[in-house]
Design goal:
With 279 residues, this protein is α+β, with helices and mostly antiparallel strands. It has two domains: 177 residues, no CATH class; 92 residues, no CATH class. It has eight helices and 13 strands. Strands 3-7-6-5 form a four-stranded mixed β-sheet. It has a four-stranded mixed β-sheet with strand order 12-10-11-13, with no helix packed on it. The radius of gyration is 20 Å and the shape is globular.
Length: 279
């Protein structure tokens, strides 16, 4: 079973592949130089993504203006983990986010046809404080995947999903130490997240609360939570639960209790939240 917040990537012992979409003038210069050079901008945050499918959703299979070239950028794992260690979640307070050299957010992973899935893909924004290190020290090579992206898209349009799937780059779970994982909300809920316990033993359909705070990892996509018996507010990273355990054992006593999150657009009911402290 895929964990909701984990990094899935193409990597080896020393490097990891991230994907970016650029206009041809930036892509051609980078491919010729083997790294990023002008007209690549060192003055703005650049977002790198280890999920090929998510970038295909974002770039519409290399058909969006300014995103018509797909680059696979192989960078050092040391650089990648330096970025993660310097990151602030986009849900952080404004001052913390402004100080951070790197921004991290989790968005729903996408299927081949662009449908949102029930687990997440990490997006890493490398800011001006580290962008030269990214281009000049971390990059080990750049490959143009535009032809492959267009070929996959062609198979999908022709209804040949199996052929399209076979052309996808490989991905497996990227290992993270506990401290690094906690800092980016991987595999667990970051501090400040709203968590709800759900008991399904009675077959009761949990209610919804429209005013629930923004949910895990600051994702604006997920603002409502299923709630039955209680809700808690995670107050520190060290006390955050990991799936699939109940986040508040003292609150959720049923052996079938679990925590979950739900998509926006669900009906808003009258049942209110009851808050308690963790554990």
């Amino acid at each position: 079973m895929t964990a909701q917040h984990e990094i899935r990537a193409d990597f080896d012992e020393s490097t990891i592949v991230v994907y970016q979409a650029y206009p041809s003038r930036v892509a051609d210069a980078a491919l010729a130089a083997g790294t990023f050079v002008p007209p690549f901008s060192y003055g703005r945050m650049t977002w790198i993504k280890p999920s090929f499918r998510w970038l295909m959703h974002r770039s519409d299979w290399a058909r969006k203006v300014g995103q018509n070239r797909i680059l696979a950028v192989r960078i050092s794992r040391e650089g990648w983990e330096t970025a993660l260690g310097a990151a602030a979640l986009t849900s952080a307070d404004t001052e913390a986010l402004a100080r951070a050299d790197v921004h991290v957010q989790w968005d729903p992973e996408r299927s081949l046809r662009g449908a949102p899935l029930n687990f997440y893909s990490i997006q890493v924004g490398v800011g001006r404080g580290l962008i030269r290190a990214y281009a000049e020290e971390w990059v080990r090579g750049i490959t143009d995947l535009t032809p492959r992206a267009r070929r996959i898209a062609g198979f999908l349009r022709a209804g040949e999903a199996d052929k399209a799937r076979r052309l996808l780059p490989p991905e497996r779970v990227y290992p993270l130490g506990d401290e690094l994982a906690a800092g980016i909300g991987a595999g667990r809920l970051p501090a400040g997240s709203k968590v709800a316990c759900v008991t399904a033993a009675r077959g009761f359909r949990p209610s919804w609360k429209e005013s629930a705070p923004r949910a895990v990892a600051g994702l604006s996509h997920y603002r409502r939570w299923k709630v039955d018996r209680c809700a808690i507010h995670v107050t520190s990273t060290s006390s955050t639960p990991t799936s699939p355990s109940c986040p508040a054992p003292s609150c959720c006593t049923s052996s079938t209790a679990s925590w979950t999150q739900v998509r926006p657009g669900a009906p808003s009911p009258s049942t209110s939240w009851r808050s308690s402290s963790p554990g």
